[in-house]
UniProtKB/TrEMBL annotation:
Record-annotated DUF397 domain positions: 25-77
Recorded superkingdom: Bacteria
InterPro entries, alphabetized: DUF397
Originating organism: Streptomyces afghaniensis 772
Protein name: DUF397 domain-containing protein
Amino acid sequence: MNENSKETAVPPVQNGVQASSLDACWIKSRHSNAEGNCVEVAPLVDGGIAMRNSRDPDGPALVYTAAEVAAFLAGAKDGEFDHLL
């Protein structure tokens, strides 16, 4: 890579897996905008659920169990995270 190249090295993935390494069908909310600032989710064959940033589809994905995602969604619906906004 030379100094005129627009390519950059891929940073190491921390706290997750490389999204491009997952054989997954990614889904985003129908409420998402067209600018690509979205969280995408994908069901995995082992029952887990992966999440990634749509702006970086080859970047890191966080993988959770279905129970962890259910607990997070229940908390969000109950307003547990409203103070963060």
